[in-house]
Amino acid sequence: MKVLRRKEGPSLDVRLAALTEAAELGAGRLPDEVVAAAREVAGRAGARRELSLEHTVVALAGATGSGKSSLYNALAGRRLADVGVTRPTTSTAQAALWDGDGAGPLLDWLEVPHRHPAGETGDLAGLVLLDLPDHDSIRLSHRLEVDRLVRQVDVLVWVVDPQKYADAALHERYLRPLAGHRDVTMVVLNQVDRLPPAAVDRCLDDLRRLLDGDGLTGVPVLAVSARTGQGLDDLRGLLAERVADRRSWSARLSADLTTAAGHLATDPHATGEPSATAPGHVLVTEREGTGKRPGRAERGLTDALCVAAGVPVIVEAVAKGHRHRAVVATGWPVTRWLRRFRPDPLRRLRIEAGRGKDVVGRTSVPAASGAQRARVETAIRDVGEAAADGLPGPWAAAVRQAARSRAGELTDAVDRVVATTSAGATRRPRWWRAVNVLQWLVFGALLAGALWLGVLFAMDYLRLPQPPLPTAGEVPWPTVLLLGGAVAGVLIALAARLAAWLGGRRRARRTAKALRTAIAQVGREQVLQPVEAELATYARFTEAVTVARG
Known about the structure:
The protein has about 550 residues and is an alpha/beta fold. It is about 55% helix and about 5% strand. The radius of gyration is 44 Å and the shape is rod-shaped.
């Protein structure tokens, strides 16, 4: 039979590095307190790994009068903590050590100054048992000391009594937030000697119900009496198991990493209201989207930029300018000079050949109107909204902000690329030069015919003998040259104008396509690339969170 083994998750080192990376990626995007908490957990985990791994730090925590100190003395086999009616009796944490050699740096890190050797070591060798101040003490310093050590110790033993085991402060402030720390948590119902057996069972059942509601299902719950010794052997047995395993420290760190990563991934600030989900619910899941490239919104952005950049005006000017320059270059030499008195549409827009990639000046294309600028802003917002669809609130806001991050540079960038791209529309086709040469040849023939006829007219006027006059058929060659040159020049000019009209349309279409491509590239660089960079950051963040959660 084939045996299926559970795939092991990433190591603690890998998870620790992933949490650190996730915190760095979340900085500036997630709430500062969440990022700071993750960094604190990462720093604390790194520090604990460098200290003694042969010792297991177990803390007895509880409310005033729960009997922590009595239980502490009973487990230690010696009177180490003062027990009395006056509260609070425990002002600072103190430690009982079973074979405490090498535990000094660990206790220094925990800032526990009072250290005592415990009684008989037995199977508890390596145990460091802490007696904490009351978590509900009237002194703020005591409560802060409890909060600090609760975050640092390896195993937590919550000591409650029959009177206050349902205290809301205990469950809401400590037990519920530690729902992810089930593997390193125990609950002891102390002082059961004051209750009849039936009442003990009812209290244990009710306590179990409350713990299940806190998310601590399966946590060991023991009935103990520090005064009579009832249940102490069971408690010692559980502690011995944790000490012998030598893995409680890693289980605690693993739970810390999971919880911190879960807080990074949760989104209670998305709507400005507390999350309605269960405590610790993670919004980043494998099925949840990580943003998407906004295809339709990108096309809308390109359309808006093209209109705002005056592309329709430029395209029309390209068609007209092509025809204008064609007439100047290929028209009949007798009349073409008149065309120079008309303004060149492309020159009027400051679109000239030679304004290449080094162009820094602006074109004279009319500035975008208020409605056109508003359309561009709307298109940029649509890009951000489309890309942020499905992302948690803080990351969606970061994506939307990324879409607007370079909006101030967009106008100049578009104008430069318009000038650069449109300059190609001013290049002269080669056939213009050939037609121009032909026109001058024909014009030369016309002039030759006119000159020839002028000479003949002068000789006739002076009654000089005229030389033989060659003819083309019955028409003299001077007349052929004059009339043929005039007719040919006009016909060539008309044909060139028709070709220029068709060429202007083609060039206008090519220019429109080139401008749209170039402007789309500007939109990608100034809007899409920052968005994609933010989406890539989010993808790395979700991957790091997933690894950190193990």
